[in-house]
Design a protein that fits this description.
about 110 residues; 3 helices; about 0% strand; rod-shaped
Length: about 110
């Protein structure tokens, strides 16, 4: 009768820890770099700050426009405002007036 003698290898004992390490590395990577990960949190905070600044500018512009519209309502109609808007809309000036054209700033 023949008997085979084999040397014991420890590769079988390394399979479970190796699979576990790969599993943890995969989920660890996505916990940091994923769509809802830690790194994305910082990008979202920067975007929130940017959009809040833009919101403040838009709200200030809206307040300015609302104030100008308020001047045109009945009972509070200012003749200077009406004259300015009519001249701008019709592109008309008097002979003794000087018009200075400025570019509008888009802040």
């Amino acid at each position: 009768m023949w008997t085979r003698q084999r040397k014991k290898t420890h590769t079988g004992a390394l399979i479970v820890p190796a699979v576990t390490a790969v599993f943890l590395a995969y989920f660890g990577f996505h916990a940091y770099h994923g769509q809802y990960g830690i790194y994305s949190k910082y990008h979202l905070k920067e975007r929130v700050a940017l959009l809040e600044g833009r919101l403040e500018r838009v709200q200030a512009e809206r307040m300015h426009l609302e104030q100008r519209v308020r001047l045109l309502h009945d009972g509070t109609l200012e003749k200077d405002m009406l004259d300015e808007l009519a001249r701008r809309a019709l592109n008309v000036t008097l002979a003794d007036e000087v018009v200075i054209m400025r570019q509008r700033s888009n802040n």
